[in-house]
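# step 3/5: fold
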Amino acid sequence: MPTWNKAHWIGLALAVAVLTSPNTPRAEPGPDAAKTNQPQTDEPWTPPEWCAHRPPMHVVMGYDEGRNFGLVEDRALLATEQFSQALCPGDRVRLIEFGLDVSWLGDTITIAGPADAQAIVKRFKERRRPDDRGSVNDILVKSASAYWEEQGAEGELPVLMVFTDTMHSDAPRRGFVIDFGWDAVPPYFQGRFLTIVNVLDRKDARQAPTLHVTTVAPGMSLDALPTGGRTTYRDLMETFIPPPTPPEPKKEIILNTVVQDNTPPWLAWLNTREGTLMASGAFFLVSVLIFWVGRLSRRRDEATEEVAGRPAGREVTLVLRDHLNAQVLRQETRLVRDALRVAPASNADFVIPGPYAFEVVEDGSEQPQLRCANMLGVEIRRAGRRLTVPEGELLALRPGDRVDIGAGHEVEVQYG
């Protein structure tokens, strides 16, 4: 057995002092031990102050798959974390990637606490790497509109959050006929949903996106929302908080109003009861006379065409509908003798929003025909099915058919 000298005893004393010292940090348990030994408690969550004022949002978060978006992945992650903290209980969120096609990232998330906000960030981290073939903004808008239409957004504020590196269109020059940049959104999207474009710039030292509000939801004004520059998510959400109402001054004001009659003498008889009855009767007789003259003239024109061996035409009623909000925007009845052009042009017989165009053709058959007049083709909703009509092709219309012209708009052709 070895003998200990004085140095051995001094080292042992120092080791005991260090181990028994109250200032010595103890070894912390690992993550598995923390899960088993410490109870899990939910931290209290205080929603942001604007949650008491704005309606619940139904958000579609669209991530670009364009050529340069991979360079701003870290900025997109930071923006996703910041926006998820601005959400309120009851908000619904779904993530989507858009390029030459779209890919939904999981199901809809309903915000109930901080864990749901973290789930949004986690879902973004698990997305696939961005493509480098370009992206089409029109595909994202159509997919979001179809999603809101399917889910139903009554009482909710539809919001399209776009995360991109450019305000311009990144669509390929060939293969896609129609697309638009976020700096030139078609006007028919206004008043349908709120669009916030998050432009991410890897050269910006702030590491924060530049927010541009390009469209607004029903009942909102584009001028009332902050946009561009150093706008933040807080700035946008605080617009829903109404300003404090100033107290009304308590003053008693007595106004003595004197009404002076400046009617010329030669019109004074109209102020009498007899004069009013005479004017009303004369206006009614003139209206009836104009109506009968127009009706007789129309019958004479139709009879002239029938004598000449030509069909008098068919009356059709065109109904422009907003399918998302279940509203009839416009309804017109027209007489079709040859072809009735429906297009987004000022010289069309029936002007519609969007890029699609078609014609209602009258060829003497029992049903009017629909002919596609653009390169995109048109889709018809018929009894729960969708029928595609290519360019230049004819299709016999049936009662109840509705032509899909994009962004939730439809045109129904009614005939007797």
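# step 4/5: annotate
The longest strand covers residues 327-336.
# step 5/5: archive (pending)
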